[in-house]
Amino acid sequence: MSDDRERIPHPTTSIDPHRHSMPRVPGSPLFSGPHFQVPKTERAEKAISTSVTIIPMINASPTESPLPAENQIDHLRTIDLYKSYRKGSVEVPVLRGVEVNIRPGEFLAIEGQSGSGKSTLLHLMGTLDGPDKGEIHFHGRRIDNLPARNRDTLRNKRIGMIFQFYHLLPELSMLENVLSPLMIADGVWSYLKNRRKYRETAKSLLNLMGLSHRLKHKPRELSGGEMQRAAIARALIARPELLLADEPTGNLDQATGREILKILRTLNEEQNITIVMVTHDQSLAAQADRIVRLKGGVIEG
Amino acid sequence: MYKLLLCWRYLRTRYIALVSIISVMLGVATMIVVNSVMEGFSGEMQNRIHNSTSDIVIDALDFAGMPDAEYQFEQIRKAAGEDIEAMSPVVLTIGMLNLSPGGRSISMPVRVIGIDEATQGLVSDFNKYLQHPENRKKMSFALREDKYDTRDHQADGDAPDRSIMAEAGWKRRRMIAESLAREQKNRWENPAGAEIRRQSYVEGAEGGAAAPRGAAEGDPEGNVPPPVENVPTGDIFQQNPALAAAAAPAFDMAKDQHTGIVLGMLLASRRFLLDSDEPNGGCEDRFYVLPGEDVKLTFPTAGTPPKVASDTFTVVDFFESKMSESDSSFVFVPIRELQRLRGMSASAADAGMINQILIKLKPGVDGDRVRDKLKAIYPETMYSVQTWRDQRSPLLAAVQLETTILNVLLFFIIAVAGFGILAIFYMIVVEKTRDIGILKSLGASRGGVMGIFLAYGLSLGLVGSGAGLVIGLLFVQYINQIADFLSWVRGMPVFDPTIYYFNKIPTSLVPQTVISIVVGAVAIAVLASILPARRAARLHPVEALRYE
Ligand SMILES: Nc1ncnc2c1ncn2[C@@H]1O[C@H](COP(=O)(O)OP(=O)(O)O)[C@@H](O)[C@H]1O
Ligand SMILES: [Mg+2]
User: Fold this and answer.
1) For chain A, percent helix, then strand, then coil, each to nearest 5?
2) How is residue A35 annotated by DSSP?
3) Using CB atoms and an 8 Å cut-off, which of residues 142-181 of chain A contact chain B?
4) Which tens digit of pLDDT belongs to each residue from B292-310?
5) Among the atoms of ligand 1, which is closest to the Cα of residue A116?
6) How confident is the model at residue B382 (pLDDT cuts 50, 70, 90)?
7) What are the residues whose beta carbons fall under 8 Å from the beta carbon of A269, sequence distance 6 or more?
8) Nearest-neighbour CA in chain A from B543: distance (Å)
9) Per-residue pLDDT tens digits for B73-119
């Protein structure tokens, strides 16, 4: 586990609750640092402290910490991405040289029509799929060609994903669904050892999402908005630095959709979590820091 | 951790998994039951084979036999004395046994075995199989007064009814002598009347009263048992006073006996199944002849060409080894008497020829080693030296083969269960395609996804074979009660004691067999889940996520 942590550098500006007081050094060492050797138990304690600090932060007024963008390496960067699907003998090109740069702490919306390849692009960013051609860089490190094990860990610890259809596991309760990334990360013993802390973290996250009364419910007993909030809680439990949201409001009514978007905004502003959201809805995209359009397999403007 | 949790949730929410658990369970239970019954049968059989013969048997291939038992013993002791506990000489021939139950004459081919009553019990379990407690302690060819077993002393549960044996012994002999004397008197006084009466009895017997004596006495129905005075004994000499007088002038049946003979139990009786609800296992043994009565034995003499020798013997006991082959063909007589009748000893002082030497080894001695030593002094051209296993090797091999074939067939049952698991797992993997995609998007590795399904297969196998183990063990424990219950339900016996000559179904659990069955079943369940698990692991996460 520790080897990929070294391969994928943790930014100095991680979700450490005390990060605001830490001096941000441009060009600080990316491939080493005290974060990388943090033992698991300590991580768990941090998770708790995070969840505790989240609660006041979400309700507090946004505190800005503007960062000099030009001094930073992109959080995520795609270079000339190509992806096509085969339909029988016909090759259907979906992405034809996509170039996106996402800066740390940015809330980027990728807008595009249905079928324009937004999901495909997001899956590539999340290393769920590999591009035919091109590269994806995470903090300046290429990730699309990493071994499967390291990509798994990357998805598990650094990247949170939210989907249009929530994608909760139907057999598990809300609480268990939220805990599932931690269960995947830990072996049986270390999980059981830390179970209490983990459950506290998950509970406070669900509480934060307004789901404290739904801990024991199965997904099918919940409404769409509730399921999406649980899915966000699940995406946050491992304290990722990047959140990829695939039409997170696509299946919700407008009011609920706005609520979800507000949560994402707050997370972005208060936790400084980088968010990439794809949507076909222009009004939704308008709420992001920056909008790019995906059309004809390339990014326009 | 998620593997265990999901595996557990899938186990609890997929009732179809129960089907595979049940099929594994049934396979394991059947294999345990069948194996323990087969093991029980063959163990029991080997025991009986071993106990009814000695550890090593030396046979003279020449029908005339080998001379001088004492000299032979000396040779054997010289060759392998330190391994040998006891030896006994045997004379073997074939013969014809003639019984006369109910006034009818029955002849049966038998194997006539001349034994030394003092040493026979030392080399084999011969004495244990006798029906008089004193004979079991010390065998004697002298007729006992009474107190023959009225219940099978070897049975440890229900035993067939043998209450008729209470009459056996001198008691029986005197009663017959008395009725004969009365009949003879009658015949002297009214020869024609006696002849008519005798005639009518014989006809009656043809009409169905031919049943053995034991049955006739206890028959509640109209078939009036012939009064005792009407029952002539089998000995034609005694029915003819003139002949009887000529054969043994001073012979008084009430006080004297002929040479003793021990009959195989199945020569003297038949087992009948009455009603399985009754006590005694619903069985009754009916006897053609009882100790105290006389039988005739005819056999060839040892000369060339053989002549026919014949003599009257008095039944002194029955031999019941529970090997139906032996019990239905062996008759034992004193060796000296047989040698004399067959002309195998030139004079009374001559040791005489013998056909067989039975050898009992000291405990723990390897029979094959002693056999090979003895083969050196008994050349194969003239003698056969065999251990008890060699003697019955075709039978033992057949039983072994039978067990193996049965096991192969039964293993197919579990293999079928394995294919069931395979199919069900494929279904579950297809059904869970989206969830597998989700897990991968959350960072689950291929191995982890595979682990869910392997753990699932393992737990199905463990639960299934665990349940099968419990059921199998309970079934074996209560197999006789279950057989009784099934007999009661079906109204006819499942396990017919008249066929197997066991009163109970013998079972024997071998821990290694049970363990390998359980381990094999678990392994099959895991193997069957490997393919679906690999398929799950290889599912492309993006495809899986698009799956609706
Ligand atoms: N597995 C696939 N095989 C073939 N074509 C696919 C596959 N996945 C996506 N596509 C096609 O790629 C295009 C882009 O899909 P997608 O990325 O889901 O678009 P969006 O999310 O913008 O609606 C669509 O035309 C779709 O039909
Ligand atoms: Mg889409």
Assistant:
1) 45, 20, 35
2) G
3) 148-149, 152-157, 161, 163, 165, 167-172, 176, 180-181
4) 889 999 999 887 788 899 9
5) 22
6) confident
7) A62
8) 10
9) 888 888 888 888 889 999 989 999 998 887 788 899 999 999 998 88
pLDDT of A127 higher than 70: yes
Distance A291 CA to ligand 2 centre (A): 17
Q: Is the distance from CB of B333 to CB of B349 less than 8 angstroms?
A: no
Any idea which of A3-7, B32-36, B343-347, B394-398 has the lowest mean pLDDT?
A3-7
Query: Which CATH architecture describes the domain A14-22+30-71+105-131+146-300?
Result: 3-Layer(aba) Sandwich (3.40)
Tell me the CA distances in angstroms from A179 to A49, A80, A126, A295, B450, one per residue in order.
17, 36, 20, 37, 20
**Residue by residue, what is the 3-state secondary structure of A271-292?**
CCCEEEEEECCHHHHCCCCEEE
> If you take atom 25 of ligand 1, which residue's CA is the nearest one?
A115
Give me the residue label for tokens 């424990």: B477
A118 lines ligand 1 (CB under 6 A): yes
> Has residue B426 got a pLDDT over 80?
yes
Contact B316, B143 (CB under 8 A): yes
pLDDT range class, residue B277, cuts 50, 70, 90: low
Residue nearest to atom 7 of ligand 1 (CA): A85
pTM: 0.66
Encode pLDDT of B29-45 as tens digits: 998 998 898 888 888 87
Give the closest residue (by CA) to ligand 1 atom 2.
A85
CB within 8 Å: B1 and A148: no
* Mutation site for A-interface testing, chosen from B2, B434, B446 by largest number of A Cβ within 10 Å: B2
Question: Where in chain A are the domains?
Answer: 14-22+30-71+105-131+146-300
* Nearest-CB residue to B445 (from A129, A149, A172): A149
What does each C-alpha distance from B234 to A124, B251, B285, B288 come to in angstroms? 105, 16, 21, 11
Q: Which residues in A lie closer than 8 A to residue B441 (C-beta atoms)?
A: 126, 128, 155, 161, 163, 167
Q: Report whether residue A119 contacts ligand 1, using a CB cutoff of 6 Å.
A: yes
Residue A263 has which token pair?
A: 């949560």
pLDDT of B484 over the 70 cut: yes
